[in-house]
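Render this sequence as a predicted structure.
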Amino acid sequence: MKKFFTLVCLGASLCGTAMAAETVHQGQGMSGENAYSEVTFTNGQDGTTKATAKVVYTLTATADNNIAIEAKFENLDPATFIGLVDDCYFFVEGVGETTLNVADGVYTGTTAGTFTEGTTYTGWFKRMSSGAYYGGDLIFPFEFTYTAGGEEPGPGPEPTDPTDGRTPKNVYNAPETIPADNIFFAPGWNPSDQYSYTLTADAATFVLTAATFERWQAQFKIPTGVSFTAEDVYQLEFDYKADNAFTGHVKLYQNGADDTFAVDQDLAMTAEVQHFKSPVYTDKPLENIILLFDWGTNPANTTIEVTNIKLIKYVTGDEPEPATTPEQLYLNGAIVGWVEPSEANADKFADYILAETEKGSGIYTGEFEFEAKENNSFRFYSKLDGWDNSSIGASQNDQQLPFTFTDNVYEGEIFIGGKGSWQLPDDFAGKVKMTVNLNDKNIKLEAETKQDSIESIEAESADAVYYNLQGVRVNEPVAGQIVIRRQGNEVSKLLVK
């Protein structure tokens, strides 16, 4: 007996096309009928002519809980879609990809992965095109709930708008710089420094002096500092243009997990400002989100502008405003043992916390005791979420910055997302009061050396008192020992004979 399942098409959109997709239809269908997904986009020839494409499909559950696919594309005029090829794939997240066969314009195939009763799946049909012409793929998304068995069901429920009753909040705020490890510019796969970029809070400009020739040869991965849970509702949008025509790419994904993403789409770059707006996403958790722009295939001497970047979170009325500053900072370095900044190690950071002076101030202080040692370096973390996230350093790159105190004070710059470390002098021992200002992006270190402590302890005594070089009091110095002698206000170093 045939098995059927209900299919509901939600928010159909076009990904990887010549411009940002515009949803023109929200449809519903069921197995045994012609369910369809329809999208409108700009063609790849001149960036102006809009066309609408449609895939009409029937999905039928098989006896072994797979899915048999039959699909036909409509409105794909060869005059509009120069370079379109017959290759087509059916992809379901969590199940995998199925290559479809074509005969007389009808695409068919059967999935290999099995489906679970009552589970909702998302995926897409992907019709390919040659990059030389269209420069991207036609993607027709869908969502369905699998039902294996029983009578053919009636139409599923009307799609609901996940933003209903929610207020849009822009939670995007770019870092000052992109970490060096997050940039890969390699024309012909050979790394090059023939590029530059600037970031502001909601925009980015890229100047690419050298040409690249393939996708992924000009990657710029911007850490957003934002995470979304499965309950969150969110959306990405921005404006973009370039002074040379080529096909770029945007991806919104979880840091360290390239295959966990919400957005993965081509951008047809022209001199005309275009607007990108993704579908609204829910039930797509992403941690430590990376906003990736890849300009691979750019011509030489290309300037790209991305403006009005918004990572919108739709919040309920009773949802608290997103925190603008972390509650505390964590000191990490030789003093802690360079422990991985993770929740599993939270107890090891209990004594190495800089507290915010007042809620929302963005200014943090703490005082810590250091012993003299080599490579006595440190930096900070705003969260215990791994080495590659939430760092605050002395420089953007992972390197050590030696420094000295002037009148027991050091002041310098901090880099949000930076991996550089401050390095104390090897012979320094004593307390350091640390003040980190995230607003002004600077740090102030105030030292109280153990020698200073000696002076304060003995200020009122005229008797000679001795200390070793580590600042520990010595009651009976022995011959051959180097000590610090304090008597009244006089301090001297001497060799005991």
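Summary. Residues 362 and 438 are 5 Å apart (CA to CA). The two ends are 103 Å apart (CA to CA).
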